[in-house]
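Fold this sequence, please.
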Amino acid sequence: MLLKEYRVVMNCTEEEYQVAQLYAVAEQSKEETGDGDGVEVRKNEPYENEFGKGQYTYKVYHLTNKVPGWVRSFAPKGSLELYEEAWNGYPYCKTGNNGYMKENFELTIETMHVGNSRGEIDNALKLSEEELKMREVTIIDIANDKVDKKDYRADEDPSLYTSEKTGRGPLKGDWIPTVEPVMTCYKVVRIKFVWRLLQNKVEAFIASTVRSLFTNFSRKLFCWTDKWYGMTMEDIRALEEKTKHELDEKRKQNAEKAS
């Protein structure tokens, strides 16, 4: 198993980020859906249990056309559907992914969102001593970290973007120690892939993919500040419901075209 901790410093408040991330998830889901692949939202409803309350979502990621050829070449039929359960009890959130391989595949992400933090908290998610020994920590700098050429867009570059509504940005040079407002997303990722001869290669591929996803998502979120700034949670729930119907229709139409 690999255990990675990513710390994503953001130029917003903890309260703003709750709305911003939900807005960005909805918008990015639309971008990634096409050719019969993409995100299918099966449940999106409030939950309350012994651990607290929040919003529960159950999604299916259809990935056949979105993974490298070497993965498709050995993947059995039906194995390229990933099931995600998420419990968003902000500021703590947890997602768990499973699919064809069941107990032989684990991808869990625990996140703690902390206001007025610049990535300096050593153990925000209360890992055990054993897990701390396994952990590898990475600070993600959304303005300066390199992104894949195919993912780069000038209008999603925090080093170029200025928010008209808030005056935030562009994020230049060594911005993390001084930017205001500030908060950090502390993300602990656990990756297990039990498949003889392929375990290390696939776990490393998943870790690299997850880091890229966090980086690209966070860059978009910041550069979409003027789109989500001022929205309420009621606005977000309405957007999520509208997005669900749009995703279902888009996947259906593209699947019909491809058949």
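Helices lie at 14-32, 69-74, 129-134, 199-223, 225-228, 233-258. The longest strand covers residues 38-49.
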